[in-house]
């Protein structure tokens, strides 16, 4: 039973892809393999009535504890998702705590392999049972190893779980830390009390199953977003001294809303459709949107294509979090501190990214810009793109986020345009004739500023339109 559970856990670990634990997955798998070696040896011993090799047991425990140590400390690093080079970077300057932990394992392993501080015992009843008794000093050394295991890798993982805004990743880390704690304690009791060996093996096998399932849930995006404060709430606007209040305050500027004849409080927490002509400088209008919300201290995230004019306009803008879809990547990766590359055909990753951003900024204002609908429609079809957009808008609205969606009005037929327009009450057009407000809704409780498109002439007369 224990071996079956251990092998099943290893299968899950080997099959998981694109998870929070990408750079630690190899070491978690290695620990699982070492544990399965112990189980296989115990099973063979029972079947053919021969004693197990304590040298193999010691070597397997050394491999398990070192692997778990690597897995734990790698989670402390900000991932570049580059496999061996990430491990090489870690080993080039390992933390002192990690070196101390490896030292404890080295002393314990060397003492066991060189001195063999145990003696073989056997009982003969209905069947012969072999077990080992250990020198007291080696049991004390085992307790030191357990303490180091719990205070360093296990405690590292648990502490990290308490600092994450991503609830899924935090829960997985807690499950892993609790499972590793159980593994260490049970292993020590198995050494001190050999008669609980079988029950301990089964319990440890189940703990590895818990670890394997915990690895499956959080994604790479959880790691990228939660590991970088740049994707959390940040204030990039300059501060000025208020004479009235005598304190520092944000320099708030209504770059975007004033161009439409509106106030920022009206635009905030709305969903807005911006229909644009690619020959118009629509990216400048979006730039004003970004700058305005940044001036109010809000986080801003933009979803676009790697080659879009909007990305070129915003890539050097401080404080803007870019999620750029690219055909040259097959997995999410961090291009810079403020830009993440996403595979262009995997729209589910955009939903995941939006969810993680909303979690990371829960309780704070965030503005989201989506310049990706056209590409999704061409790659996956209108129905799929429409479904993704609907889900994104529902997620953003549930957290009172401000959403600006761009739609190239020259690239789609009337059916597509009408379908997308149906998701919005607030609508802006930016073409070669300038920028104009077609319809806008303050909120569900305040009603529309413009009831229908026939009010466009009146809005222009009041100076809403402009270049």
Write the layout of secondary structure elements.
Layout lengths: L1 H14 L9 H24 L5 H21 L9 H9 L3 H20 L2 E7 L3 E7 L1 H28 L3 H26 L4 H20 L3 H7 L12 E3 L6 E3 L13 H4 L3 E6 L5 H14 L3 E7 L3 H6 L5 E7 L6 E4 L2 E5 L4 H13 L5 E5 L2 H8 L1 H17 L3 E7 L5 H8 L4 E6 L2 E6 L1 E3 L3 E2 L7 H6 L6
If you had to describe this structure to a student in words, what would you say it looks like?
The chain is an alpha/beta fold and 467 residues long. The chain has two domains: 2-227, Rhopdopsin 7-helix transmembrane proteins (Up-down Bundle); 244-461, Rossmann fold, CATH 3.40.50. The protein contains 17 helices and 15 strands. It has helices spanning 2-15, 25-48, 54-74, 84-92, 96-115, 136-163, 167-192, 197-216, 220-226, 264-267, 282-295, 309-314, 348-360, 373-380, 382-398, 414-421, 456-461, and strands at 118-124, 128-134, 239-241, 248-250, 271-276, 299-305, 320-326, 333-336, 339-343, 366-370, 402-408, 426-431, 434-439, 441-443, 447-448. A nine-stranded mixed sheet has the order 8-9-7-6-10-11-5-12-13, with helices on both faces. The chain has a two-stranded antiparallel sheet with strand order 1-2. Strands 3-4 form a two-stranded antiparallel sheet. Helix 12 links the parallel strand 6 and strand 7. Helix 7 runs antiparallel to helix 8 (197-216) and helix 14 (373-380) packs antiparallel against helix 15. 37% of the residues are buried.
